[in-house]
């Protein structure tokens, strides 16, 4: 007769689990924490009792808690796989992934918030591995090797993950505007920060459009032949204040042609041959920001419509021309 396995020690299972366990009171103070979590942050379970959860979070972690975890818990009662960082007693940080649920009584009153924490060090190692792989891919492309797919997968991951810190920053700035008294200079700085976040979001959108186009998902198009074209052209045309922008649109021989031209420096022939390649920016001033994806995306949209993009450049003008068949 085989021996029965020993009974599990549930107290030891809780205290020394391979993950952190945490229970929060409704006011956000720690009601119970296991030894694993206490060891991670460099203190004891007893010392954590009654401590605000914010005390063991980094600044970014506090924003993630206020703007993501707490609202989602109130809305749906649970949150899965939220990434933020714990703050150790020595000031170092621990990347973690958290799952949380609310414990409510029969009357629906909130009793506790239970949180399970998992170290995400391996995930950070994976991200660093992606960065290393991206760098290696760039070297390989320069040497003529066919490894561009790895770089584009990295860009897709990077573009996706960049949205989380940008959202946290935007939420934090919004909290400052609503909750904190700001001087005139403070309001100006906050407005500049909003503008910087908007520009960063636009760059992320370009990254994701690029990734979708290169990884087979294609660019999303919305076609509506009933919508007038003139207001759209008038809205998006822009350039230097002292140089006129010319826009021409015409149809003929089952072909729609739209061209935009303006003055300025001539684009060299060798640069014109690469204008529609991703990440090509040519000679630009240090103050000019961008990823070199705009014309690539324009060209991909043209191809998605069954059309083409062309560029000509002389001392008098530079002209970009889009052509597509009227009937596919």
Number of strands: 9
Q: Could you state the oligomeric state of the chains shown?
A: single chain
- Our measurement of the CA-to-CA distance between the termini, rounded to an integer number of angstroms, reads 78 Å
The portion of residues forming beta strands comes to 15-25%
Please tell me what the overall shape is: elongated
* Helical fraction: 40-55%
Spans of at least 5 consecutive residues whose pLDDT stays below 50 are: none
Q: Mean of residue pLDDT?
A: 79
Question: In the CATH hierarchy, what is the superfamily of the largest domain?
Answer: PAS domain
Helix-strand string: HEEHHHEEEHHHHEEHHEE
Report the sheet with the most strands, covering strand number, pairing sense and barrel closure: 5 strands, antiparallel
CATH class of the largest domain: Alpha Beta
- Discrete helix count: 10
State the domain count. 3
Round the Cα radius of gyration to an integer and report it.
27 Å
Spatial strand order of the main sheet: 2-1-5-4-3
Structural class: alpha+beta
Describe the structure.
The protein is an alpha+beta fold and 328 residues long. The protein folds into 3 domains: 11-119, PAS domain (Beta-Lactamase); 123-214, Helix Hairpins (Orthogonal Bundle), CATH 1.10.287; 230-325, Histidine kinase-like ATPase, C-terminal domain (Heat Shock Protein 90). 43% of the residues lie in helices and 21% in strands. It contains 10 helices and 9 strands. The chain has helices spanning 10-15, 35-41, 45-48, 59-76, 121-142, 148-179, 184-214, 230-236, 269-272, 294-304; strands at 20-24, 30-33, 78-87, 93-104, 110-119, 246-252, 255-262, 308-313, 318-325. A hairpin with a 5-residue loop joins strand 3 (78-87) and strand 4. The model has no long low-confidence stretch (mean pLDDT 79).
